[in-house]
Amino acid sequence: MSPYIMTMLLFCLGLGTMITFSSSHWLLAWMGLEINTLAIIPLMVQHHHPRAVEATTKYFLIQATAAATLLFAGMINAWTTGQWDITNMTHPISSTIMTLALALKLGLAPAHAWLPDVLQGLNLNIGLILATWQKLAPFSILIQMQHSNSLLLIFLGLLSTLVGGWGGLNQTQLRKILAYSSIAHLGWMLLVLQFSPNMALFTLLLYFIMTYTIFSVFSLNNSTSINSLTTAWTKAPALSALTPLILLSLGGLPPLSGFMPKWMIIQELSHQGMALITTIAALSALLSLYFYLRLSYAMTLTFSPNITTGVPSWRLSNTNINLPLAISSSATMLLLPLAPAMNSIIMP
Q1: What is its EC number (predicted)?
Q2: Total Cβ atoms within 10 A of residue 233
Q3: Which of 127, 268, 291 is nearest to 200 (CA)?
Q4: What residues form DSSP beta bridges with 25?
């Protein structure tokens, strides 16, 4: 793809997100979401592989359906209340339809089935954009809405944490595992969204850092399946030694950074008197932790079979570690003494 076309598409991708961020009118928010969708489609299909074309077609149909449903919910709200303001989503029917449309855009359970298939058909760089940047615009609308049906948010969040942990157990493809990881993390954000939006945003920020780190590690090693992780130590030994800590941080194991948002979300939900939901969400994190442990085991304790006719992988790969990956790896493995300071900033 031409650098000029790539620059224009990336600019439109950022422009669509910024329009949705800065808009308080449903039509402008819908317009930003549509620009965002149309900008990423050429990036997804740039390699002209049949699997990429299939994933792009699925993504376009799902996003068009969600955008049409979102616009329909905004029209219902304008009809009943006489206003197009995002923060004035008070009618229960329109609020429910809008929340379900945004859940479909984000890939939350039970509208999650498209996300693993689409992510599996993309390369790791475009998959990183889909798993991170594309979540910003719908999530910003969710934060601005006045939710009159908090039970729906709790149901979607709890189901997403369960499906995200359960669905990744029998996967062998890394992109599908990361898709289910995204579903589980978004479920945690949705659980705390109506009680503490600042905490949800902090969780989203840490999720972005950890997801960027693990996508960069897999891209550097050119790994797309669990079996391919067994040769990663020959390409970047130091990074392979640190990757299990990054994976365990994604799983939320103390004392790593990924445990900090889960700890604060569990604390906030307990203060709201939601002990049963908190317990189920905490137990669902064990499901996610299991397949992260599988990846760690494959990367550090498993050796690939060595044959004399094979070409050594260390002669083919570049072992340079870029600066953003080093910074994000350090941020992912920060220890928990920072947690009280962050807790005081988020919950003054």
Answers
A1: 7.1.1.2
A2: 21
A3: 268
A4: 85
Q: What is this structure's pTM?
A: 0.89
User: What is the three-class DSSP state of 305?
Assistant: coil
Residue 169: partners with Cβ closer than 8 Å, 6 or more residues away: 287, 290, 291
Is the bond leading into 116 cis (omega within 30 degrees of zero)? Answer: no
Whether the ω angle into residue 110 lies within 30 degrees of 0, i.e. cis, is: yes
**pLDDT tens readout for residues 221-255:** 888 888 888 877 777 777 888 888 889 999 888 88
CA distance 137 to 206: 17
**In 10 A of CB 56, how many CB atoms?**
21
Residue 173 DSSP SS3: strand
The DSSP letter of residue 308 is T
Is there a contact between 110 and 49 (Cβ–Cβ < 8 Å)? Answer: no
Q: From residue 336, how far is each of 189, 261, 331 by CA, in Å?
A: 20, 11, 11
